[in-house]
Amino acid sequence: MVRNLTHLELLSLDFVDISSSVPIILANITSLKVVSLEYCKLNGEFPSDIFLLPHLEWLSLISNEDIVGSLPEFEDNSPLNALGLVFTSFHGKLPSSIGKLAKLEQLLLSGSGFSGPIPSSLGNLTKLTGLDLSGNSLSGDLPLLSQI
Predict the structure, then answer these.
(1) Which of 38, 67, 81, 114 could form a disulfide with 136 if both were Cys (CB 3.0 to 4.6 A apart)?
(2) CATH of the domain at 19
């Protein structure tokens, strides 16, 4: 469906029963700013290159329990300002490079499979207005609390 939409900036299919994996072709639509695929019954491995799209500001996969993946190493100057992976099967450690997401305002990762230490680089996210890490196996101090 999206193969020929090379200038697409917003893709919102919330509550559409897709019942399949996310096509890797989405990682080639470099104009995407918003990808919202909430409650879509997605499954399989999420293409990690989508996180690195050069204009991506908003990515939400909330309540797709059967989609798996891990967070990539983030690059400087990412425009990402909202990331929602609530109730997914994402797993692994939170990369320390998450602190490079200087524009990030919402980081919602509750009820997923993240584990390991909370990276101290979270303290670099000075624009955060929403943070939910509950329901994961994370440990350590939350560096943001020292700023309150």
Answers:
(1) 114
(2) 3.80.10.10
Question: What pTM was computed for the model?
Answer: 0.92
Structure tokens at 3: 């193969």
Instruction: Give the span between the Cα atoms of 122 and 97, in whole angstroms.
Output: 9
Give CA torsion, residues 30, 34, 39, 43, to 10 deg: 20
What pLDDT sits at residue 148? 44
Q: Is residue 139 part of a domain?
A: no
Half-sphere exposure of 63 (CA within 13 A, CB side): 8
DSSP symbol at 23: P
121 inside domain = yes
- Collapsing DSSP to helix, strand or coil, 146 comes out as helix
Domain with 85 in it:
10-126
- Residues 31-79: pLDDT tens digits? 999 999 999 999 999 999 999 999 999 999 999 999 999 999 999 999 9
